[in-house]
Structure formats: structure tokens, C-alpha cells
Amino acid sequence: MWAIASRRRAVELAWFAFVVANLAAMARWESWETIPFHFIWVSLTLLYGFRVWPLRPTFGVLAGVCAATAFLITRDIQNGSQTAGELTEVPLMSAMFLAMVWHARRRQDAVRRAEALAESRAMLLEQQERFLHDVSHELRTPVTIARGHLELLGTEHPSPPELGIAIEELARIEGIIARLLLLAKAERPDFLAPSEIDVEAFMEDVFVRWSDVTPRAWRLGDVAAGELWADERALRTALDALVENAVKHTEPTESIELRASVVAGGVALEVVDSGRGIPADARERIFERFARADDARNRTVGGVGLGLSIVAAIATAHGGSCSVVPQEPGTLFRLLIPDFTPARRSAVALAAPVS
Predict the structure, then answer these.
(1) pLDDT (tens digit per residue) in 341-353
(2) CB crowding 20-59: b at 16 or more within 10 Å, else e
(3) Given 122, 229, 231, 244, which is the most exposed site by the fewest CB atoms within 10 A?
(4) Using an 8 Å Cβ cutoff, are 215 and 288 in contact?
(5) What are the backbone angles phi and psi of residue 19, rounded to the nearest 5°?
(6) For the sheet containing 321-326, what is the strand order?
(7) pTM, two decimal places
(8) What is the C-alpha to C-alpha distance for residues 305 and 79, in angstroms, rounded to an integer?
(9) What b/e string do you get for 62-94 counting C-beta neighbours within 10 Å, with b at 16 or more?
(10) How buried is residue 277: exposed, middle or buried, by Cβ count under 10 Å (0-12/13-18/19+)?
């Protein structure tokens, strides 16, 4: 800070010396005084553009320049070396300088307001993340304990149906807490632990896990061969959330397809379903926290609106994106991850004749 202040003071002193030299030139060469006169005003404007002074010093410098230049021009008019009209340049240059001062100060105020707003929003975001993290941690322990006691009670005594419902609801709360913790960590620099992922094996694993337990018309479409540099655990969470969303919005007879294709900038992991689709007015907000495509759906079907926001957070952390494309019928969700290396075809395959 001291070094910056010293440089500014040196610039101001250099400008002051420059002005004195030009005032001396105006006094020495009366017929050519307009040249140093304009040098003074242009240099003042340039200096203020780089160094916005407070109002009192600004008007003090302006008054000094006006008085000095007006005095020399008035003297030259009295000596007959200049016409009286030359004196009008002083108020004109002053007006131009004041207009520049007004614009510069408006810009400075706008920058300050923008910086203050950005800082307040950053603090608010940090407070929200800390709140999510703290609340999730505080809730996890009592929920786990309560669920454990209820499960133990169910094994020791004949359990009524309400006990099973309570256990399911506690399990659901645990899932919500886990997702809140994931969202709270999503913007940390250590959120991801990337490694090489074989895309074909990864997509097949997700497909097998879901198709074995959920009755749908499952299909594994074309999958691009290659290596993806990403966090496998986070990517699996994102793809599971997309598949879970497709399951919630389809009937057992409807289809769900998983596929992966090479696109400009990386690989697109896609989940396509033939379900009821998403209303047009909901497509812009479904990736926001606690947003639902249909507010009328109950919690069992619609969830609490965290799944797709987690997908968006994981995609952003990888430098990618998540988007939704309406189908007829159904919906396509596309998860774009940029760091993808396509597999090279073997020399034998390249040399094989095409039948």
C-alpha cells in the first residue's frame, strides 16, 4: 500500500512540474501560448482519469489551473498578443473537465457498489453453505440413532405397519441429509478426486444395478469407447440421480435408455425415458435446489427437489453442464463432461477388410 501511495505521489509531483513548465512557456512565448495551454488541460484530464481525487482537492486543482491560465491569457490580451476570444477557452476547458469528473466519479461509485454487492453475495453463499453443512451434521446423528432403535424394535417384537413407515421416512431423511452435505461441499476446491474412468464399463455398471432391481423397459444404447478424467464417485451419484428421476416419472411398462456419445468438448452421458415429460415452464428451474417439475406431485413421487441440483453441481465442478431436452414422448437428460479421450482403434481393426 505504501509503495502504491508513493508512486501516486510521484506521478502527481511530475504532473505539477509539467504544469509549471507549460505555464512558463505560456509566459515566455505569448503568441504560441495555446499549445502549452492545451497541454496543461489535457494532462490534467489524463491524470484525473488514472487517479480520481476527492472532491475538495479536485476543485482546488481546477481553481488553480483556471486562475493561472486565465491570468496569463488576460495579460497577453492586454499586451495585444492575443484576442479577447481566447479567454473563453478557460471556462470551456473547465466545463469539459467537470463533465469528465462527473462521469469518472459515477463509474467509481458504480464499481464500489458492484464490489460491495459481490462481497455480500459471496458472504451470503458462504453462510448458506455453512448452514447446510452444520444442520446436516447435527441432524445425521439423531436420525441414525432413532432409525437404529426402531429397526431393533422391529426385530424383537411384532411390528405394526406404522413402524415400517417410520423407518422408511427416517431412511428418506438420511438420504436428504446426505444430499445436503454433498451440495454444501460441491463448491470446495477439494470436492473432486478425479481419476481415469472407462466409460463403457461405467455405463454398463450403472445400467446393470438399476435394471436388476427396477421393473422398466431398460435399454443400454450406444456407448462411446474411451477414458474419462473425472471423479467416479461423484459422477456415479449424478448419473444415479438422473436414472432415479427417470424411474420416478415412468411406469413399469415405459422405457429408460442409457447411452454415451462423443460431442464437441467431451462426452455426453444421456438418460432417455418415455415417461410423462416435463412441463415447458419448469425446464428453466428444475436444476435449482428444492425445485420440482410438478409441484402437485407428492413427496414419494416427486422427492424434495435436490437430485437434479446435485447433478448440476457435479457437472459444474467438472467444468461441464447438465441440460434437459424434451422428447416425444418423454425426456432426455444430458450430462456433459469435458475431459474425455476416445479409445484408439487397434491396428488389426483398422486393417480388417470391410465385409
Answers:
(1) 988 753 333 334 4
(2) eebbebbeeebeebeebbebbbebbeebbeeeebeeeebe
(3) 122
(4) no
(5) -65, -45
(6) 217-223, 255-263, 266-273, 331-337, 321-326
(7) 0.54
(8) 85
(9) beebbebbeebbeebbeeeebeeebeebbeebb
(10) middle
